[in-house]
Write a structure and sequence with these properties.
Number of strands of chain B: 0
Largest sheet of chain B: none
Shape of chain A: elongated
Distance between the termini of chain A: 92 Å
Structural class of chain A: mainly alpha
Largest sheet of chain A: none
Helix content of chain A: over 70%
Strand content of chain A: under 5%
Shape of chain B: rod-shaped
Radius of gyration of chain A: 37 Å
Distance between the termini of chain B: 107 Å
Number of helices of chain A: 3
Number of helices of chain B: 1
Oligomer: heterodimer
Chain lengths: 175, 75
């Protein structure tokens, strides 16, 4: 009885195993590559020149794209320099207005002041400040995105250089 | 009375002088940065000109290819 039970249980387990071992076989559908007959036959009078022109234009497009990357880096550098300049001017301002004006004696002449700001002006200034804060946040997110993009563009640049090399090799072969 | 010399009292004369020197230095730095920005702008302009000439070249070549494909020699 006990043996029967054991067998029964074994059978059950074996069934379970067999069911788990069943695999779904994906059959790949073989795509038949049919070569299409060309619809038009065009006689090209100067095939070599045509090919050369195509390759050269390809090379120029790649050079153009490389130039774009360079342009982007120049712009980034320019933005950095603008920020630096802004800081430098601010420092000069603090030195002149904050420290120097305190050390020098004050004259009797009063500085020309505009009319005192009204309540509406104050509200407008507050709104402008809020907008500036939002702009700063946007800039930070844009900066992080730029950093990530820079990583990607490096690989893109490598790819472009490889393509350029192969095209130039082909061109030298033609010549 | 008009030509009487005017004396201005400055308590911390040395500090003022050093401060002015510092400001001058900062102004020179700012000038350098501005020159760099100007150089970069020139570089950008040069790059744009290059792009324009490259595009013209590519356009010419594409015109030639288009012409030779659309108007082949007739038998």
């Amino acid at each position: 009885m006990s043996q029967n039970n054991f067998k029964m249980s074994k059978k059950k387990t074996s069934r379970k195993r067999s069911s788990s071992r069943k695999k779904v076989v994906h059959r790949r559908t073989t795509t038949s590559r049919l070569e299409k007959n060309p619809e038009y036959m065009v006689q090209v009078s100067e095939p070599k020149i045509l090919r050369k022109d195509m390759l050269e234009s390809l090379r120029e497009v790649i050079l153009f794209m490389q130039g774009y990357e360079k342009f982007k880096s120049i712009q980034d550098e320019k933005i950095k320099l603008f920020k630096k300049l802004k800081l430098q001017v601010r420092e000069i301002d603090t030195l002149v207005q904050g420290k120097l004006s305190k050390l020098l004696p004050k004259g009797k002449l009063k500085a020309v002041q505009d009319n005192l700001p009204s309540a509406q002006d104050a509200e407008i200034e507050d709104k402008i400040e809020e907008l500036e804060v939002v702009d700063v946040k946007k800039e930070e997110t844009a900066r992080t995105q730029k950093y990530e993009q820079a990583r990607e563009t490096r690989s893109e640049l490598d790819l472009l250089e490889d393509q350029l090399k192969s095209i130039e090799d082909q061109l030298t072969g033609l010549n | 009375m008009d030509r009487m010399p005017v004396f201005v009292r400055i308590d911390e004369y040395d500090t003022v002088l050093s401060l002015i020197r510092n400001v001058r230095h900062k102004i020179e730095d700012a000038k350098d940065t501005l020159v760099k920005i100007h150089d970069l702008k020139n570089e950008e302009d040069h790059q744009l000109e290059m792009w324009q000439s490259t595009l013209l070249e590519v356009e010419k070549k594409i015109d030639f290819i288009d012409h030779s494909l659309n108007e082949p020699e007739q038998f």
